[in-house]
Write a structure and sequence with these properties.
It is an enzyme of class 1 (oxidoreductase). Its cofactor is [2Fe-2S] cluster. Its EC number is 1.-.-.-. GO terms for molecular function: dioxygenase activity. By secondary structure, the protein is an alpha/beta fold. The protein folds into 3 domains: 99 residues, Ubiquitin-like (UB roll) (Roll), CATH 3.10.20.30; 92 residues, Elongation Factor Tu (Ef-tu), domain 3 (Beta Barrel), CATH 2.40.30.10; 134 residues, Rossmann fold. The protein has 7 helices and 19 strands. Strands 11-10-13-8-9-12 form a 6-stranded antiparallel beta sheet. Strands 16-15-14-17-18-19 form a 6-stranded mixed beta sheet, sandwiched between helices. A 5-stranded mixed beta sheet has the order 2-1-7-3-5. α4 packs parallel to α5. The model has no long low-confidence stretch (mean pLDDT 93).
Length: 342
């Protein structure tokens, strides 16, 4: 038996390692040529201190309180030289990937198809040479063929799949949009680097509210597909905001996921006043007390900067502080270095 361990470095890079049953994280990382911070490796110095964001583990008692205090242990701080996982885990490492002599993953793939789903959205499907491990919600950088420019796109597919899918904003005249719609053909090679990002699905402990703006739907598709593999009891609501009815895409996929996740519902929200959609306006117009559960809720938001700012203002105005709030901003023609998450 082995466990999948995601190491999230402070520069946004995520590296996955495999940890055998009974094996310590530091040893597993070293075995796979990832040099996590360390000095004594005996639980004395505290140099290898990290934070376990999710997963189950044991630390034993062979470390000094000066290296890891009881308060730090309660906050899920860990010493990787002592940590033995008993499930898949996500570990936040407080240094850059390069400092640990590892780097961003590089993957090759070929275009299977790219379809214009609407005037505003393109779906890209890629056949990979090998599946990419990532945390649902994370993104990769894709190199625009014929140049050196990179664009950041969130997966809409499951981690590890040999086919990776992406929902891409159609930007008129955009570098990637133009290539996809005018030049791309089946078999064209693409280079992907990653995964990256702090916007990813955490363990479900309370009701979930997902807020998607346009092609910001992509990471939620990955999250929901992952949840559908092991359904949970917590209610999940997705508000999917677009400008006009024709911008609503992947609705059949959402309906199919709703059929598999009995506690999941999704509601389209359209700003066009002429829309046939029952929910008109902005997603912030449809926050009710039941949805926000008096703050006992985890909120995930992916959309353009004005949408993110509007949601933040609305929550502040209503004096509601979610138990956790994770968001990612994107802009048309998003360059890799501009991708922002919190």
């Amino acid at each position: 038996m082995s466990f999948n361990i995601a190491l999230n470095f402070e520069d946004g890079v995520t590296r996955f390692i495999s940890c055998n049953a009974g094996e310590k994280i530091l040893d597993a990382a070293y075995r796979q040529k990832v040099n996590l911070p360390m000095d004594c490796s005996d639980g004395v110095c505290g140099t290898c201190k990290c934070h376990c964001a999710s997963g189950e583990y044991s630390l034993g008692e062979d470390f000094l309180e000066e290296a890891l205090s009881d308060d730090e242990s309660r906050q899920r701080q860990v010493l990787t030289c002592q940590m033995v996982p008993s499930s898949d885990c996500v570990i936040d490492v407080p240094v850059s990937a390069s400092a640990c002599k590892t780097g961003i993953g590089r993957f090759q793939g070929k275009v299977i198809r790219c379809d214009a789903l609407s005037s505003s959205a393109i779906e890209l499907l890629i056949e990979l040479e090998k599946g990419i491990d990532f945390l649902p919600g994370q993104y990769v950088n894709i190199q625009v063929p014929g140049g050196t420019q990179l664009r950041a796109y969130s997966f809409s597919s499951l981690p590890g799949d040999m086919q990776a899918s992406f929902l891409i904003r159609n930007v008129p005249g955009g570098l990637m949009s133009s290539w996809l719609l005018q030049q791309a053909k089946t078999g064209d090679e693409l280079t992907l680097t990653g995964p990256m990002g702090s916007f990813y699905l955490r363990p479900l402990q309370r009701p979930i509210v997902m807020l998607a703006g346009g092609t910001g739907l992509a990471p939620f598709l990955a999250m929901l597909k992952k949840l559908a593999l092991n359904p949970v009891n917590q209610p999940i609501t997705l508000l999917y905001g677009v400008t006009k009815d024709s911008d609503l895409v992947m609705t059949e996929a959402l309906d199919e996921l709703a059929g598999r996740l009995t506690n999941f519902r999704w509601l389209p929200v359209v700003t066009d006043t002429e829309s046939a959609c029952p929910q008109k306006g902005f997603v912030t117009d449809h926050f009710d007390h039941a949805l926000l559960n008096d703050g006992d809720v985890d909120v995930y938001l992916c959309g353009p900067p004005p949408m993110v700012d509007a949601v933040l203002r609305t929550l502040q105005k209503r004096q509601i502080t979610p138990a956790s709030f994770h968001y990612e901003k994107f802009a048309p023609g998003q360059k890799a270095e501009q991708h922002a998450a919190a």
